[in-house]
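[09:14] KT: can someone run the structure on this one? pasting the chain below
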Amino acid sequence: MTISRRAASLSRTVVATAMGACLVAGCGTLPGGSGGSGGTITVMTFAPEGTGATNMPGMTGMAKAYERWVNAKGGINGRKLRVLTCNEKNTPSGAADCARKAVAEKAVAVVGSYSQHGRAFMAPLEAEGIPFIGGYGVSSEEFQSPLSYPVNGGQSVLIAGAGHQLGRVCDQVALVRPDTIAGDTLPVLLNAGLRANKMADATDIRAAEDSADFKPQASEALAHTAGTGKEKEKEKGCVTAVLGERTETFFDAFRRTDPQRRKPQISSVLGSVSQSLVDRTGGRESPFEGAYITSWYPVSSDPVWEPMRKVVTDFAFGDDTVDPDDSGAQTTWIAYTVLSEIVKRFGEDEDVDARKVKRSLNESQPVKTGGLTPDLSWRYQDMRAVAGFPRIVNGQVTFQIVQSGRLVAQPGEKSLDMTPTLVQAPRTA
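[09:31] RB: done, structure tokens below
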């Protein structure tokens, strides 16, 4: 009995010693909690990669570069940042899998991610109270869920902004867009911008999201905008395509379908057309020369982007998916800026978890993003009365044009808040 009691006592001593050592080393800290000063905060960024439709590898690449940069300078307020990445695969199941992984790893937030499948990824996050900060803005749930904290107005303000941009110069407009649930909202939003300028509605032309042959859509767009007869020839036709990575393929087909070089004005939105695409297709000789582009942010040559460019240069480590001109990388940078500013508002020894981050986002004073967006705040009083998009807090767009191979600010056009236009638009979600 004495030997048994001594063995039990020794066992308890060893266990207690091991637990104490583990606590000192920090191995008892939950992956999603900070564990106080010097702890670790886990977050996730997901985006589609290697798919037949839109891919956004620059978003996860930017997230990892931000992780390396912020940890090299001591973390966020003394807390190490742990960034998980996930391939969303452009499918509902892929989006749901990424969200469930964030839950399993006890992430305090999902940050700067891309997915069209909002219903699939928001449900698991909502069930665990995990906030979704700064998604790209292609799913309606990002502007409806109380756990979503968008940093831009998403596709809705871009498309409405494109309508405003084209409504000032066009007599007829054709829209080529994906034949998807997300794509179904685009004509309504574009028409809202056109109507604000007393323009007729655009011709709605659908295309399979993963199509490689856009000749039928190109022929239809040309027929609706090139016109025939003397009166029609005097009118200005415009073609806008919002097809993600397939936008280049469409406009290539469109050029080949226009042998008479009638050249309607072409346009798109940032994300479907980017500086890297213009560079890749010839720069000054690019077929996108003269194209109108609507964006959320200042032009990429603006000095306000210099901090992000330095991080990409110093911490992307040759990752050619991270393009500082890419709107996905830019959105991710802004989203992580928001996360960092929110975490800095916690005390150094205060635990950080998903619910505390959510509460801080709901209650905190506006977050500054270094001039990249207006100050951002998601308090109840900051929400806009936009049907279907109640979480929009930033409806600003900028108007750009491709000149001499560069995306530059469109002369005579200042940034514009599209919220009033969206308030007047029919419900789209």
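[09:33] KT: thanks! The radius of gyration is 24 Å.
[09:34] RB: yep, looked fine to me
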